[in-house]
Amino acid sequence: SLASTAITCFTRGLDLRKGTEDVLCPANCPLWQFYVFGDGVYASLSSVCGAAIHSGVITNTGGAVRVQTLPGQENYPAVNANGIQSQVLSRWASSFSVTAGTKSTALEAVGRSVSTARPSTGKRPKKTLDKKAGNKDCKADIAFLIDGSYNIGQRRFNLQKNFVGKVAVMLGIGTEGPHVGVVQASEHPKIEFYLKNFTATKEVLFAIKELGFRGGNSNTGKALKYTAQKFFSLENGARKGIPKIIVVFLDGWPSDDLEEAGIVAREFGVNVFIVSVAKPTTEELGMVQDIGFVDKAVCRNNGFFSYQMPTWFGTTKYVKPLVQKLCSHEQMLCSKTCYNSVNIGFLIDGSSSIGESNFRLVLEFVSNVAKAFEISDIGSKVAAVQFTYDQRTEFGFTDFVTKDKVLSAIRGIHYMSGGTATGDAISFTTRNVFGPVRDGPNKNFLIVLTDGQSYDDVRGPAAAAQKAGITVFSVGVAWAPLDDLKDMASEPRESHTFFTREFTGLEQMVPDIIRGICKDFLDSKQ
Questions:
Q1: Within 13 A of 67's CA, how many CA atoms are on the CB side?
Q2: Residue 398 C-alpha from the chain's centroid
Q3: In what helix (H) or strand (E) does residue 482 lie, and over which residues does it extend?
Q4: Is beta strand 5-6 parallel, antiparallel or unpaired with respect to 63-76?
Q5: Eight-state DSSP code of residue 432
Q6: Architecture of the domain made up of 5-100
Q7: Which residues lie within the region annotated Disordered (predicted)?
Q8: Which residue in 69, 76, 138, 376 has a CA-CA distance of 20 to 30 Å to 312?
Q9: Cα 106 to Cα 4, 141, 383, distances in angstroms
Q10: What is the model's pTM?
Q11: What order of strands is seen across the sheet that includes strand 381-387?
Q12: Same CATH fold assignment for domains 5-100 and 141-331
């Protein structure tokens, strides 16, 4: 029979590698630390043992569980069962179900443990933890936005510093582990130290100890917006491809509005967590200008990004669950933004009616759209195809992985001149340019630029492109018939169809196209 694998309280569905796996859950896992999403069918983000207790397969005394991998789904529900409150998740890429394992397989598991079973945030056994490198399993660039307002006062400010210090220690800061900085929110925000300033826990603890209390209103919204915009630049030590996180500590409630700051943070690809302490009592609610301030600011309102502590006293038990959240990088849903997670293909009409000088204006338009995105090997990608009766791939998505190279490749496109077969060109692009990236992580967009009537059918090829997961924007100039443009565009057609009489009008469309891509990207993520 199959031998089971001993796992820990924190092993998640996505840590298991096989389609069906027999595991052995330990006894006495702390129920309040479990993250479980769904009911019966659980998002693979969930703790396996937590899901098994939630569904009644085992109790807290542990036992054998069979885990079956299932496809992802939408709307995992929140259900309270067997002492565990599962949480809502709007969508996830894979799921699992749990059934009772068999006892015979469980016996062989005693003493067998696997490397994936280690909780990703737990400290490694001392001998393998390279002090300087830090905890490599925790990928995060974190700004602690601490409360320095009169709300919290000097005494609790010091307790807050102690708590942040304990979180910093448990994170395992190091050159290859998490990096942290601190911003103090009060009347005006102040960046106390940046990510790049310290890469050793000892130094960070010293810097936290030295922080002075500023006092003033708790303008958390102002501080959050400032931190999202200014803190994570590459020159201040932010690292490419590492999730950006702001942990907002709030004693009571903010004096200003958090909604706009939350939107800005999401646009900048920052994951906002709110740790609210001593939240407003019933008598105090009248003084709070927006009771839903937490939901407005967090990355996603799914329960994962908000965290509550009743007071600043006795907070040690809250350290580890918070660290686990900060280290689960698959859950940083706001790291992906429309700027760093899209593939944009440009299909450029090279027919003879355009002429050399207007063709330059078309290329300028293409450059200006491409310029807005974060193009890199792990970010967004750009490709271009020129067409007449024939098609020519100017460059594919993987040919150039820096913005400068893409922009110079666009400038280097030579005008073909010829007829117009837009339908054929869409089919060619769907197959040859989008085909290789179809299963990649980025969302796919095609921008079709044309100045006239196509000699062939555009509706069929455009529908096939959309079916292959490509969102199509059509941009028409001069004699391009509106019916063709609408037939090519994705739904809702009005917001995906653009037209201008003159080639000089292309420039004004750039912001609307970028906004359209971002809106579609966000809608697909909800």
A1: 34
A2: 22
A3: helix 482-488
A4: unpaired
A5: I
A6: Beta Complex (2.170)
A7: 111-132
A8: 138
A9: 6, 40, 53
A10: 0.60
A11: 391-395, 381-387, 342-349, 443-450, 470-477, 497-500
A12: no
| DSSP secondary structure, 502-520, as one string | SGGGHHHHHHHHHHHHHHH
Phi then psi for 437, rounded to 5 degrees? -110, 10
Q: Backbone dihedral region of 413: left (phi > 0), alpha (psi from -120 to 50 degrees) or beta?
A: beta
Domain regions of the chain by residue span: 5-100, 141-331, 342-523
DSSP H helices, 372-458, are 403-411, 422-429
How many helices (H) does the chain have, and how many strands (E)? 15, 20
Spatial separation of the C-alpha atoms in residues 287 and 145, rounded to whole Å = 23
Residue 47 is inside which H or E element, if any?
none
Q: How far apart are CA 344 and CA 331, in angstroms?
A: 25
Give the Cα separation of 5 and 86 in Å (integer): 25
Fold for domain 342-523? Rossmann fold (3.40.50)
For residue 4, report the phi and psi dihedrals to the nearest 5 degrees. -85, 165
Residue given tokens 């309102």 in the structure block: 301
Q: What would the DSSP string read from start to end of 337-357?
A: -TTTSEEEEEEEE--TTT-HH
Residue showing tokens 């590459």: 234
**Displacement of CA 204 from its chain's centroid (Å):** 27
Q: State how far the Cα of 46 lies from the Cα of 25, in Å rounded to an integer.
A: 14
Specify the CATH architecture of the domain 141-331: 3-Layer(aba) Sandwich (3.40)
Residue in the block written with tokens 């409630």: 253
113 DSSP 8-state letter:
B
Residue whose token pair is 């940046």:
194
Cis? peptide before 189, omega within 30° of 0 = no
Query: ∠ at Cα 519 (488, 259), nearest 5°?
Result: 165
H/E element holding 143? strand 141-147
Distances (CA, A) of 89 to 43, 80, 86, 305: 8, 15, 10, 12
Identify the bridge partners of residue 190 per DSSP, sorted by sequence position: 184
Q: Is the dihedral of CA 162, 167, 172, 173 positive or negative?
A: negative
